[in-house]
Amino acid sequence: MANRERKIYMLSKKNVDYIEELKEKRDLKYNSEALDLIIREHRTNSDMTTEVMIKLIGEKLAEQLKSELLGIKKASNETDKNTQIIIELLNGLFVKNGYKTLATTDDIKCETIDRTRKIVEERIAKKRVAKLDREY
Predict the structure, then answer these.
(1) pLDDT tier at 56, thresholds 50, 70, 90
(2) Which of 79, 81, 80, 84 is CA-nearest to residue 124?
(3) Is the Cβ–Cβ distance between 68 and 76 less than 8 Å?
(4) How far apart are alpha carbons 64 and 41 in whole angstroms?
(5) For the chain, domain boundaries
(6) Cα–Cα dist 121/131, whole Å
(7) Torsion angle in degrees (nearest 10) through CA of 122, 126, 128, 130
(8) Euclidean distance between CA atoms 78 and 115, whole angstroms
(9) Using the 8-state DSSP alphabet, how is residue 21 labeled?
(10) What are phi and psi of 111, to 5 degrees?
(11) 134 pLDDT higher than 80
């Protein structure tokens, strides 16, 4: 404790009582030692608190993203599975009926395609709204 300076500070009665209480608890000789200890602990805890806070925020964010990404992954897997089933069914129909070539939607577009797309988009939107309602 060689680098010590004498300073005069005005403190509230409550803070002075706290310093004296800490001095007695820790068996310190002077109030200034207790105040030094309080400041050292505050510095350590402030640095630690920032690190802990950053770590906690990171963990919470990762947890939140993980659940969101899991939902996207499940939906993607389900969509992929359904697409593969449809391709297999269509392939079976084409082979059974002996189709060699087919017109694409670029060549001819049936209005049923547009109507079906609209129905599916509305169904997806309703499911999304229902899910959001359940979450809140």
Answers:
(1) confident
(2) 79
(3) no
(4) 33
(5) 13-102, 103-136
(6) 15
(7) 180
(8) 23
(9) H
(10) -65, -20
(11) no
Residue indicated by tokens 């082979």: 95
The owner of tokens 């079906």 is 116
CB under 8 Å to 31, separation ≥6 — which residues?
16, 19, 20, 23
Tokens found for residue 17: 């009582």
Residues in the chain: 136
Q: What is the pLDDT of residues 91-108, one digit of tens each?
A: 888 888 888 777 777 777
Residue 132 in tokens:
């959001």
DSSP state of 58: H
**Residue 35, both tokens:** 């105040």
CB proximity list for 78: less than 8 A, separation 6 or greater? none
